[in-house]
Design brief:
- The complex is a heterodimer of chains A (205) and B (472).
- Chain A is an all-alpha fold and 205 residues long.
- Helix content of chain A is 71%, strand content 0%.
- In chain B, strands 3, 4, 5, 6, 7, 8, 9, 10, 11, 12, 13, 14, 15 and 16 form a 14-stranded mixed sheet that branches.
- In chain B, β4 and β5 form a beta hairpin.
- In chain B, α6 runs antiparallel to α7, α8 packs parallel to α10 and α12 packs across α13.
- Chain B is elongated and about 80 Å long.
- The chains are: A mainly alpha (205), B alpha+beta (472).
- At the A-B interface, α1, α2, α3, α4 and α6 of A face α1, α2, α10, α12 and α13 of B.
């Protein structure tokens, strides 16, 4: 029993583990047959992943809550046409990425601050001295502001690669592009970000 | 440089990417409300089509007659109040609103989750909150999310949009900003403000008038039936137009307001009678006194000396806000006190389920399992709360940690009730561990099979493949 307790405390990371497609398929079938609880179960299974995906593309912005709902509304509308060619998880992530891109396009390329004050502080907290902390914060804000100026497709490809560590093939599956196209987008995204950072650094007093 | 840059990006975008149980449940409530009309519309389109033309024509067209003016037709699904008038109307099934002209309001969605868009003017509203209900008011520059409160949103011709709260608390989401702003009883916040200020006397008085039907109805009112926008809102939408109440600072005349009309929704008389009297604020408006003395004449005794007013009685929202603030300061004892008071005094409040869950979590953290179980039992009695699932999970964890014989049944029941829960893997892992403890790997074979099927790529599955290789 004690071991079980220890286990309960340590397997939290496993929540993010990929889930088998059978359970999803059964839930989709049940939902389409009119089971009122099936969609709630799908939401429970994938909500955290959607939230994480949106955060890792858009940053910790307040609109994430609405976007999570938008993703599941779109999924709800798409399920009657879902034939199971791809995994449900892939479909959901595609929808999430599309919603994130729509959000980025809607908001133009204005340099929106991505992270809340608390988050900025949390990241900068690892710095050893107040001076280092201030510098870390500034650096962070600069990177985020520059990131906000990269076009959505490049930004998404770059972030899926750098933040999630996905392969070009995996990214291609999510954004409906060939691995070669994805590689180019990642490369361009990196270059643009570097150029913007250099530019931002020069403009600093 | 590349690596350092990538590190910074990674840190910024992963530090706050976890969706906790409460937020997940809250999002589901809002999503469910949005899904309901979508589901209905799929099957009902055949019935709706013949009525389409009628419905289109019947979209809210409120014709407002100002003094000596010709009718002004508003846009479909919108309400307009010309200068000098106040338009009283339900705002969805659970909110009563007054639109102080010149103003324009659009109803985006009506139902459990009502969404309104204030284009111009001032909106005074009282929302009767409960689990599953929400009211969102979008205005230029910000959006206000309401749980249950008496509040105002002002969109001036020029200048910033402002939000004032006479009772309760609202969450304001400034456009283009990440951090929400919480505006509570007696407070006012305008777009761009760095700090929250006190509600203005004029707004406090206007809200008091709005909350008091008798007062509001004092001038002769003319009712114009407006058309109900899409179906789910049960009460018919009736817009009442009356001249705008003149907001003055006269102390002499205003009659005492009657008890608030929504007292049925307010669980205790204390809450229902709470006047908008901001505590510890600069000289407040001559806010109407609570209706303790219904007699029209003031008592003969001389008025008391102008001493500082006592703090307004706490409402469920303010107690919850107190608990949140205490938690933010790390003062769990104060948080527990506030939550206990909320649970005891406002058992039918819209936030009681959150209070019970928070109370259980706090008790659980300090291993006060009996207290946690009592709070969870209370939570289980709350009808249709989205926190039922996290509450059930916590109950199972407590059963495990207290070596309760019901732990296994609890987990099995939970997994059956909430398939594909984010906690499913944790609990499946516990069941496997317990089965192996009792009868070895063979006894756990079915569960190991399930683990491999549902979570084959997880670390837990890898670990079990190593421990029970014969079952690979």
């Amino acid at each position: 029993m004690i071991a079980a307790l220890a286990l309960l405390g340590t397997v939290r990371d496993a929540r993010d583990a990929p889930r088998g497609g059978d359970a999803d398929a059964a839930l989709v079938a049940a939902h389409l047959k009119g089971d009122p609880d099936a969609f709630a179960a799908l939401y429970r299974a994938h909500a955290s992943a959607v939230y994480r995906r949106l955060t890792r593309i858009l940053g910790p912005i307040a609109e994430r809550d609405d976007l999570v709902q938008d993703v599941f509304l779109a999924l709800h509308g798409a399920l009657p046409r879902f034939r199971g060619e791809a995994k449900l998880g892939t479909l959901i992530h595609r929808i999430a990425i599309n919603k994130a891109c729509e959000h980025l396009r809607r908001n133009g390329r204005r340099p929106v601050a991505l992270a809340s004050e608390r988050v900025l502080d949390e990241i900068a907290l690892t710095a050893t001295s107040p001076e280092h902390r201030a510098a870390a914060r500034e650096e962070l804000e600069r990177v985020l502001a520059c990131l906000a100026r990269i076009k959505p497709k490049k930004r998404v490809a770059y972030l899926l690669r750098v933040v999630d560590g996905l392969s070009f093939e995996q990214i291609g599956e999510l954004v409906d592009a060939t691995p070669e196209t994805v590689a180019k987008r990642v490369q361009h995204g990196q270059r643009e970000l570097d150029a913007l950072l250099v530019h931002a650094e020069r403009r600093q007093p | 440089m590349t690596r350092a840059r990538d590190e910074v990006v990674r840190a910024a975008l992963t530090v706050d990417d976890h969706l906790d149980d409460i937020k997940r449940a809250q999002l589901w409530t809002r999503l469910e409300a949005r899904l309901a009309p979508a589901s209905r519309s799929r099957g009902w389109w055949r019935l709706v089509v013949p009525a389409g033309a009628l419905a289109a024509a019947a979209l809210v067209v409120v014709v407002v007659l100002g003094a000596g003016r010709h009718p002004i037709a508003s846009e479909p699904a919108s309400l307009a109040a010309p200068p000098g008038t106040t338009l009283a109307t339900p705002l969805g099934p659970y909110a009563r609103a007054s639109l102080v002209g010149p103003a324009r309001l659009e109803l985006v969605g009506v139902g459990e989750a009502t969404v309104a868009r204030l284009r111009a003017g001032t909106l005074l509203a009282e929302f009767d909150g409960a689990p599953g209900r929400s009211l969102r008011v979008e205005a230029p520059g910000l959006a206000v999310v309401v749980v249950g409160t008496l509040f105002a949103v002002e969109v001036p011709d020029r200048g910033a949009t402002c939000v004032s709260v006479a009772h309760g608390r609202v969450r304001v989401e400034p456009r283009g900003s990440i951090a929400p702003v919480f505006v509570a009883t007696g407070e006012r916040w305008c777009e761009g403000d760095r700090a929250i200020g006190a509600i203005t006397p004029e707004t406090a008085e206007a809200l008091a008038r709005h909350a008091s039907p008798q007062l509001a109805a004092a001038p002769p009112a003319r009712e114009i039936p407006a058309v109900v926008p899409p179906p789910p809102a049960p009460p018919p939408m009736v817009a009442t137009i009356r001249p705008a109440p003149r907001v003055t600072r006269e102390v002499s005349s205003p009659p005492p307001p009657a008890p608030r009309a929504s007292s049925a929704s307010s669980p205790t008389p204390v809450e229902a009678a709470t006047p908008p009297t901001p505590a510890a604020r600069p000289p407040a408006a001559p806010a109407p006194e609570p209706p303790a003395a219904p007699a029209p004449e003031p008592p003969a005794a001389p008025p008391p000396a102008p001493i500082a007013k006592p703090a307004p009685p706490a409402s469920a929202d303010t107690l919850y806000a107190t608990a949140e603030a205490a938690l933010a300061r790390g003062n769990e004892v104060a948080a527990e006190h506030a939550l206990d008071e909320l649970i005891a005094r406002f058992p039918a409040s819209a936030v009681v389920d959150q209070a019970l869950y928070e109370r259980a979590t706090l008790a659980y953290r300090r291993h006060a399992y009996a207290q946690a179980q009592a709070a969870l039992a209370g939570l289980a009695r709350v009808a249709s709360t989205p926190l039922a699932e996290p509450g059930a999970y916590l109950a199972c964890r407590i059963a495990v940690e207290t070596h309760d014989s019901s732990a296994r049944a609890c987990i099995v029941g939970y997994r059956r009730a909430y398939p594909r829960s984010p906690h499913d893997l944790d609990l499946l892992g516990w069941l496997i561990e317990a089965a192996v403890h009792d009868g070895g790997c063979a006894a756990a074979a079915p569960l190991l099979g399930e683990l491999g099927t549902a979570y084959g790529a997880s670390k837990l599955a890898h670990a079990w493949r190593a421990r029970c290789p014969e079952r690979r």
